[in-house]
Amino acid sequence: MKLLPFADYAKKETLRVKGELPKKGAHDLRFAFITDLHYKFNEEMQASVSNTIHAINTLNKEEKIDFLCLGGDNVGNYPASPEEHVEMMRELASFLAQCDVPVICVQGNHDDNSIHGRISPYSCICRTGANVPDDVQYDVLFADSEKCEHYHGGGNKALYGYFDAPAANTRVVFLNSSGVPYIVENGIMIYNQQWDFGYTEAQLSWLCNTALKDAPENVIFIQHRPFARKHEETNETIYNADVLDKITQAFVRGAKAQFINAHEDFGYSIFADFGGKAHRVPVRIAGHCHADRACVDDMGLLSVTTMLAGRNNSGLAVGDDGEKYSHEPFSATETSFDIFTFSPEHNTLVATRYGAGKSRKFDI
Length: 364
Fold this sequence. Notes:
Elements: H1 8-20, E1 29-34, H2 43-63, E2 67-70, H3 82-96, E3 103-105, H4 134-142, E4 151-153, E5 161-165, E6 170-174, E7 184-185, E8 188-189, E9 197-198, H5 201-211, E10 218-222, E11 238-239, H6 241-253, E12 256-261, E13 268-273, E14 284-286, E15 293-296, E16 302-305, E17 336-343, E18 348-355, E19 360-363
Parallel strand pairs: 1-2, 2-3, 6-10, 9-11, 10-14, 14-16
Antiparallel strand pairs: 1-17, 4-5, 5-6, 7-8, 12-13, 15-16, 17-18, 18-19
């Protein structure tokens, strides 16, 4: 599907963002982060996504954007068959294919459509039949990332990978925070990606032995669910979140570590050797909470979330500034996304906002 025309209000907003972007140094990393789009079949969403791609292409001509990341909950969030859900993915993918910068997706908790298999409107238990398997999601929305020379997928159609930015001495690691095993008993999924979060041994082992092995000095993490629990009001279970943090701590110190857990479904036995070389994790970025939030977590790492890019009825939330920003269709505030500029030289991270909300600056 071709992009709709670049709307005048979006051109004006793009020009404003261009004037606000910090000057990009030779060793800086710049990427766009769009999360919680909840793409649907309607003209409002088609216009919003078209204007977003036009804006990124326009900015990239002079301001050089290294990649665009879709931060999960990329499609859906209304009653739909699996076939309709996949068609929404295909339409979104057709727009993204017209972006002039590499596009990298991460998985969100709405992306497998399992919510529509729940046994009752208020249940967190889901039957099979409505869910879209990971390999189908990969084929439709994730596979194009592999065409980028700087992107390295997790293999076997895994919904995680990493992107190298050699000039910035930085690697960006994309994790799947909904990476739960597919186990079915009597037609019921023991774990469903709508309400269950976690990391299996396969993903954790890949993280230790591939993504973080021989990594450059700086590693930025991106996933859908916030890394810091402080960003959310809920108390959802995140399987193996504790070992993810332990791995990150060992990586920062350059330590050797053994990680063992005998859980029946989330067990692991992983040895990591980070070579005695200390590293830096400037920031861990996520979506999911639909608001602009930031904190220094219990490990002393900066954790940042970005406001949802989707429609008002996808669920607006209050951010750190105490405001709830509305998304007005066919206007400059029809969406929200950040263009992050990381400067290793100046130890700064700037999130320049396109659309509703405010820009933010963080000292690393």
